[in-house]
Amino acid sequence: MATMTTRPFSRFNLWLLVWFTCAYLVWTVLTLRAGLFAAIDASSDTARLQPDSPAAQIAAAFTLVSHPLVLCVGLMALGIWAWRGKLRHLATASIASGLLSWGAAVLVANSVQRPRPPSPLSTALTYSGYAYPDAHMAVVTAAAAVVITTITTTRRPPIAMLVARLSALAFIVASGLAQWSMNEARISDLVGGMLLGGTVVTAVLFVARVRMLPVMTIRRQASTNRPHGGLCAVIYNPHRMADEMVFRRQIANELAGEHWEAPLWLPTTPDDAGQGMVATALSRGADLVIGAGGDGTIRVIAQSLAGSGVPFGIVPSGTGNLLAKNLGIPLDREDAIRVAVKGRPRAIDLVKLVVDGRSEAAMRFGVMAGIGFDARLMSRTNESLKRLVGSAAYVVSAVPELLVSPHRVEITVDGVRQVRRKAVLTVMGNVASIGGGLELMPDADPTDGRMEMVIGSPTGLFAWARTALQVITRGRAGNSLEQYTGQQMSVRVDEPMPYELDGDTVGEGCLFEAEVDPGALVVMAPLSSASHS
């Protein structure tokens, strides 16, 4: 069973949403129905700038730079950056805010059909469409809010937050002045656009659960009446960090808020994927270890922490993130860090694997071990393609493997020989999901002291399609896969076969002996969770 977690709504965001919504509705009524601002708007009937004047050229250039299309493209680029940095909520909000603000303003304006004031600069690209609410100001306001939000989420220093807010406000004012001076919009049109943009962006941020404004103080001193958190060691793969400094600031901020000591930073190296870092953390008396990286890094840290009792906070930073997904740990980095620091300790099983009798080189995994087919699949999958399209890269790499001839295997479960047969797919697993909503071993539970094994021998496209259908329907569409459950399992093959652990190809072997290590690892899990099958 896996768990799901939900990021809490921000009360401040809700307050802003209500304020902007009410302000926009009241302003619209006062502008269009009551005509309260008619005298002020009448000033826009007089030309302010001559087309060839330097001031007009500067204003026109500014309105082009801040054009809704330009800002939406910029917000999309910001969203892509945030997505690469595993800030998924921020990425979604960034892309949606500009497009929805622009779309909402155009939709309302076409409904109201208020003409723009006469302007000697009516040939300007930005002098188009109806006036109320001004779409230009709507997108400018949304973009400014997203910039403030980005500074918040990435935990910039207080001075940077203050500068960002002042700069965003200045950008909104300058955009309004440029349009007003060019007679492109009335004051009421500009304010209406700003309020509509604020309504849309706060709604998007509220739904996406992105905190808009933070507390200004990043690091707070521990008070005398609250216990100190202790020492946290942060082990991370720097090659998986789109912005290492942002990651560090987010970790440091979350720990400081819970009164922990300054974290111990332990980046992995090409020669050490995490074993030495865990040894250092344990020797320093770490009370919590946070690991950030792909499935391989997480597996190495988990293996090295096994039996220590030190809680392990997982910040998924790869393409698969299978252990995190199966434990309900959020894939958004900010959420994952919060769970790693504030979650509840939960003991899970690991599986100990000995290959070809080399007990001194025993390994542990938390997700699965695959022999043959999926090991070759993992090794042939291009890393650049994985970063580009995620798990879909495995589908591309699987095509050449679909016609591979089966090999002979001998299976033993809990000391009892089960079968000797030919197989293409042999997987021992500790969890249900293999990603993408697919459950290869739907009965697997990392807390029940048992493990699962799946064996299949599909040959040809039709057989593979039938096997895929069984996985998609969780066993309700055929029995092309044989399933076994036990505490100890062994797989013997007639010739050396490659094998993978948690998505990383490790080596080759002929005899694979696996045994469950119950409750070997303590993982920080979400506080509020709901089980689902």
UniProtKB/TrEMBL annotation:
<keyword id="KW-0808">Transferase</keyword>
<dbReference type="InterPro" id="IPR036938">
    <property type="entry name" value="PAP2/HPO_sf"/>
</dbReference>
<dbReference type="InterPro" id="IPR050187">
    <property type="entry name" value="Lipid_Phosphate_FormReg"/>
</dbReference>
<keyword id="KW-0443">Lipid metabolism</keyword>
<feature type="transmembrane region" description="Helical">
    <location>
        <begin position="90"/>
        <end position="110"/>
    </location>
</feature>
<feature type="transmembrane region" description="Helical">
    <location>
        <begin position="130"/>
        <end position="152"/>
    </location>
</feature>
<keyword id="KW-1208">Phospholipid metabolism</keyword>
<protein>
    <submittedName>
        <fullName>Lipid kinase, YegS/Rv2252/BmrU family</fullName>
    </submittedName>
</protein>
<feature type="transmembrane region" description="Helical">
    <location>
        <begin position="58"/>
        <end position="83"/>
    </location>
</feature>
<dbReference type="GO" id="GO:0005524">
    <property type="term" value="F:ATP binding"/>
</dbReference>
<comment type="similarity">
    <text>Belongs to the diacylglycerol/lipid kinase family.</text>
</comment>
<feature type="domain" description="DAGKc">
    <location>
        <begin position="227"/>
        <end position="357"/>
    </location>
</feature>
<feature type="transmembrane region" description="Helical">
    <location>
        <begin position="12"/>
        <end position="38"/>
    </location>
</feature>
<feature type="transmembrane region" description="Helical">
    <location>
        <begin position="190"/>
        <end position="210"/>
    </location>
</feature>
<keyword id="KW-0812">Transmembrane</keyword>
<dbReference type="Pfam" id="PF19279">
    <property type="entry name" value="YegS_C"/>
</dbReference>
<dbReference type="InterPro" id="IPR045540">
    <property type="entry name" value="YegS/DAGK_C"/>
</dbReference>
<dbReference type="InterPro" id="IPR016064">
    <property type="entry name" value="NAD/diacylglycerol_kinase_sf"/>
</dbReference>
<keyword id="KW-0444">Lipid biosynthesis</keyword>
<keyword id="KW-0594">Phospholipid biosynthesis</keyword>
<keyword id="KW-0067">ATP-binding</keyword>
<keyword id="KW-0418">Kinase</keyword>
<keyword id="KW-0472">Membrane</keyword>
<dbReference type="InterPro" id="IPR017438">
    <property type="entry name" value="ATP-NAD_kinase_N"/>
</dbReference>
<dbReference type="GO" id="GO:0016301">
    <property type="term" value="F:kinase activity"/>
</dbReference>
<dbReference type="GO" id="GO:0008654">
    <property type="term" value="P:phospholipid biosynthetic process"/>
</dbReference>
<keyword id="KW-0547">Nucleotide-binding</keyword>
<feature type="transmembrane region" description="Helical">
    <location>
        <begin position="159"/>
        <end position="178"/>
    </location>
</feature>
<keyword id="KW-1133">Transmembrane helix</keyword>
<dbReference type="Pfam" id="PF00781">
    <property type="entry name" value="DAGK_cat"/>
</dbReference>
<dbReference type="InterPro" id="IPR001206">
    <property type="entry name" value="Diacylglycerol_kinase_cat_dom"/>
</dbReference>
